[in-house]
Amino acid sequence: MVSVVVCLVLGLVLIAAAGLKLAGGARARAALASYGIRDPRAAYVVWAGLIGAELVLGVGVAVGSTLAATAAALLMAGATAAQVGAILSGRTGAPCGCFGAKGTIGRASAGRAAALAAALALAPLLPREEPTTEGWLAVALLGLAGLAVVVLALAREVGMLRLSVAPRGALEIAHEGPEVGARSALATRFALEERHLGLAVFTSEGCGQCRALAPVIAGFGRHSSVVLRTFDELADADAWSAGDVPGSPFAVALDADGTVLAKGTFNTGAQLESVLAAAERRRGAVRA
What we know:
The chain is α+β, with helices and mostly antiparallel strands and 288 residues long. The chain folds into 2 domains: 163 residues, no CATH class; 103 residues, Glutaredoxin. Helices cover 56% and strands 11% of the residues. Strand 3, helix 6 and strand 4 form a beta-alpha-beta unit. Helix 1 runs antiparallel to helix 2. The radius of gyration is 29 Å and the shape is elongated.
């Protein structure tokens, strides 16, 4: 019974390490530079290989495979040697990449890897008795608790990764489209009241992205302070010319007096919203 529980716990640790590396993504791959793997392609291969090995070995150890436990012990021994080598090379404090993008190289990380290697090597030597029904129930509950911990850890890693990646707004390039701060001839296409923003969206028949975003674009027209106008490349060629539009989908936000407040190429609803957000910010700054 003890052997079953130990193998299950050790297997879950390996599976958790693989999951956290996967969730860490680019940051987990970058941590491999601490061990001299700086080429992006080589780092990707090693990262993917470690994830695959830890997943396969974790499942094998959890079900009681002696071969998997031995192979996992050798893997952890190699990780210990890599940690010690990094410490001796003066890279203490560098990212270790052991459990995703978190953690740093040091005595604690090397000791943890050595302890895992020893535990995996000793696990097959523990007496293994066939568990009773109650024993299997206890093992199942322990496994569920371990999986819950893994899922929570993965959710936290993914959340931290999303927070660390700044959302991209619409692509606003100077001299593409109407100049920000200038009056635009597009103003004649709107009847804007004070405190309203005009949103000109330029689309074309052959633009698949425009067709996919059509419902999202239409939704912006339901905003009480936004006046939406869409201009097709062929049907509204004069508007395209007046706006000096570089391509589609493209958006221009206008103040009530026709001043261009923001512009940009967009590919998502969030990016189109960023055009309005930039317009609101700039209008507030000008009026202040």
